[in-house]
Amino acid sequence: MRATKEVVSQKIIAARDLIRCHPLTPELATELFTSKCMGVFHFSVELIEWSESELNDVKQLCVQAYKNAWHLPRSTASALFIFPKTHAGKKCTFGSHDTGVVAACREMHAT
């Protein structure tokens, strides 16, 4: 389990770093990021139980990638990427605790 989680984290970090200094629009950079690592994370979520702390780490990496996509420094407040669109946010859905994939993972592992 630990090795799989490490591979997932490394894939997310590689995708995050890939879009650090990119010539793409923010929307395309975000799409590139999610296409490079979302499948790996979603696959692992179905097989392995992730702790709250580990999911927070994934969420933090995701927010860092979104900041890279929008050419923002890491010191920028993360609220924009965490708050839902109904509250003027962009809702970083990858690794977010309330997304369908993670919620389904919790239900599956709770039973």
Task: Give a quick set of tags describing it.
single chain, 111 residues, mainly alpha, globular
Would you kindly provide a written description of the structure presented here, covering whatever features stand out?
Helices cover 65% and strands 0% of the residues. Helix 1 (2-18) runs antiparallel to helix 2 (26-47). The protein has helices at residues 2-18, 26-47, 52-69, 79-82, 100-110. The chain is globular, with a radius of gyration of 14 Å. It starts with a helix and ends with a helix. The chain has 5 helices and no strands. Residues 95-101 have low confidence and may be disordered. It is mostly helical and 111 residues long. It has one domain (2-110).
Tell me the overall shape: globular
N- to C-terminal distance: 19 Å
Structural class, from secondary structure content? mainly alpha
Helix count, DSSP H or I runs of 4 or more residues: 5
Largest sheet: none
Query: Residue-averaged pLDDT, rounded?
Result: 80
N to C succession of SSEs: HHHHH
| Strand proportion | under 5%
DSSP strand tally: 0
Unreliable stretches (pLDDT < 50, length at least 5) are: 95-101
Percent helix: 55-70%
